[in-house]
């Protein structure tokens, strides 16, 4: 989704937001219809594709990029590690059982020392996850199965609620390693609420549009149209009333001021300067720590939602952010 047509010249261009939403909705409707009719719908991945061996050369594609579609669980292991021989088969079995809700990436630490260092692995087995380009530790050692299941369930919930990751479609008859396909989310009875949000945007009622989208998401956290609309409406709400010239002056004069950089990034995105907005916030994350760093990171994730996870600039920025964080 491209916010290229949004502008901030004294007023907010609401028509661009509506057009972007309608285009996305039509695309999703067409995919869903094709899936129902079986007319050229993409095949799912094979069950064997849910467990993959990853090395340093393939990490960006197999883990970082794929984490924009499905949570990726990373199993750091080695042939000589006895606890790994207990944990790895369990994780592989759960990957099959969860049937596309997460992807298991196995990394041999002996052959991939750089990845081990980047993740700060102190001992193995160690299990991490990458969700939408963000890495987080899960557990270390051969944990009980019940604990592992609970951790996986929480991971999947975070992926769905915060990033709309609904997993992969698995086709038992598929063969070989195929590109992952995002699972389709059944449409809910939210047409009236979504239409109310669009009407609020048309009327210039950004607060009303924000609330209407939140009403949908409170019942259906993974609704992609509502997530996109909310992200865009909140962005437009933030920049409304700002003095662009003053915001840019503040950002230039105070490069270490995270609030100033966040405000400038919002204006960059509204003006269609997507790479500038992403780059500004990635630099802020790199230069800061603590609450300031987290504020810049969270705003960057919000701007990813505005642009859309299928945009290659978002994929590139997620990779750059992961490199800065880890």
Automatic annotation (TrEMBL):
CDD domains: ybbN. It comes from the Bacteria. InterPro entries: Thioredoxin-like_sf, Thioredoxin_CS, Thioredoxin_domain, TPR-like_helical_dom_sf. Coiled coil: none annotated. GO terms for biological process: cell redox homeostasis; response to stress. Residues 35-157 form the Thioredoxin domain. PANTHER family: THIOREDOXIN, MITOCHONDRIAL. This is Thioredoxin domain-containing protein EC-YbbN. It comes from Streptomyces formicae.
């Amino acid at each position: 989704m491209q916010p290229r047509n949004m502008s901030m010249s004294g007023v907010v261009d609401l028509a661009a937001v509506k057009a972007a939403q309608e285009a996305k909705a039509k695309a999703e409707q067409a995919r869903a219809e094709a899936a129902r009719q079986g007319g050229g719908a993409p095949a799912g991945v094979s069950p064997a594709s849910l467990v993959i061996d990853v090395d340093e050369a393939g990490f960006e594609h197999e883990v970082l990029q794929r984490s924009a579609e499905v949570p990726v669980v990373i199993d750091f292991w080695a042939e000589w590690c006895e606890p790994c021989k207990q944990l790895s088969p369990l994780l592989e079995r759960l990957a099959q059982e969860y049937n596309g809700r997460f992807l298991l990436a196995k990394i041999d630490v002996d052959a991939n020392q750089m990845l081990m260092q980047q993740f700060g692995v102190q001992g193995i087995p160690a299990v991490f996850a990458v969700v939408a380009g963000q890495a987080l530790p899960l557990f270390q050692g051969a944990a009980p199965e019940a604990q592992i299941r609970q951790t996986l369930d929480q991971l999947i919930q975070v992926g769905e609620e915060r990033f709309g990751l609904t997993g992969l479609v698995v086709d038992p008859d598929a063969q070989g390693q195929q590109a992952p396909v995002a699972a389709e989310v059944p449409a809910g009875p939210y047409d009236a609420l979504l239409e109310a949000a669009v009407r609020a945007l048309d009327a210039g009622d950004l607060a009303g549009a924000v609330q209407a989208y939140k009403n949908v998401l409170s019942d259906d956290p993974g609704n992609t149209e509502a997530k996109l609309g909310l992200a865009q409406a909140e962005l437009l709400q933030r920049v409304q009333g700002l003095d662009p010239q003053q915001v840019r002056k503040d950002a230039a004069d105070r490069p270490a001021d995270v609030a100033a950089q966040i405000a400038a990034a919002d204006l960059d995105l509204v003006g269609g300067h997507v790479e500038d907005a992403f780059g500004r916030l990635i630099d802020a994350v790199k230069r800061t720590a603590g609450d300031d760093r987290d504020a810049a990171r969270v705003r960057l994730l919000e701007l990813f939602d505005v642009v859309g996870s299928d945009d290659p600039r978002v994929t590139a920025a997620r990779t750059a952010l992961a490199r800065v964080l880890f």
